[in-house]
Design goal:
The complex is a heterodimer of chains A (112) and B (115). Chain A is mainly beta and 112 residues long. Chain A contains no helices and 11 strands. Helix content of chain A is 0%, strand content 54%. Classes of the chains: A mainly beta (112), B mainly beta (115).
């Protein structure tokens, strides 16, 4: 089955810096890659997703890039703010009804 | 309600006790998923329903775990004879379409602690 690796496990940045989180996947058939943000004690919430027919997607300070050949995708957050502090999960799906396989998460801490 | 609702939010069970966790998906959502999230880990798939049909239960860790969605809306995850290793947050998610490639909305989860 699908295996998703996520790095780093923790990331500390200063407010205003950029943050990058990287994920690799194993199943070349995967074609949907969402990113979820989970604040402490709260539900995971979708922040951005990308499908395999595009290489990059941007939404204000958040962007995701996908390299299908290398089977990796990355989350980029620019101009980080303290409220960006949370655990971020990447995931992959091969489509159809297929379920999401999650990475182990990255704890992002943005210091004022 | 506007989102996925799970109850109870917290459950403490004595080892060997049976528990039932409830999920109310967003109205009209076809797909419903259960995930198990251990402390410091990503959610791990347990089972999937499309309407009332359980299409995939490959993630259920043992035959002590059972899930149902009899009328295609509310779902219940039941764990029999709970063990300490069952302690985790159990997340329910629903999506509009018949596949996971539409946005999945998660509930806040039920934190199960087995003592």
């Amino acid at each position: 089955g699908e295996n998703v690796e996520q790095h780093p496990s923790t990331l500390s940045v200063q407010e205003g810096d950029s943050a990058v989180i990287k994920c690799t996947y194993s199943d070349s058939a995967s074609n949907y890659f969402p990113w979820y943000k989970q604040e402490l004690g709260k539900r995971p919430q979708l922040i951005i997703d990308i499908r395999s027919n595009v290489g990059e997607k941007k939404d204000q300070r958040i962007a995701v890039t996908l390299n299908k050949t290398a089977k990796h995708f990355s989350l980029h957050i620019t101009e980080t703010q303290p409220e960006d502090s949370a655990v971020y999960f990447c995931a992959a799906s091969i489509g159809g009804y297929s379920t999401l396989t999650f990475g182990k998460g990255t704890m992002l801490l943005v210091s004022p | 309600g506007a989102g996925v609702s799970q109850s109870p939010r917290y459950k403490v069970a004595k080892r060997g006790q049976d528990v039932a966790l409830r999920c109310d998906p967003i109205s009209g959502h076809v797909s419903l998923f259960w995930y198990q999230q251990a402390l410091g880990q990503g959610p791990e798939f347990l089972t999937y329903f499309q309407n009332e049909a359980q299409l995939d239960k490959s993630g259920l860790p043992s035959d002590r775990f059972f899930a149902e969605r009899p009328e295609g809306s509310v779902s219940t995850l039941k764990i029999q004879r709970t063990q300490q290793e069952d302690s985790a947050v159990y997340l329910c998610a629903s999506s509009l379409g018949g596949n996971m490639n539409t946005e999945a909305f998660f509930g806040q989860g039920t934190r199960l602690t087995v003592v």
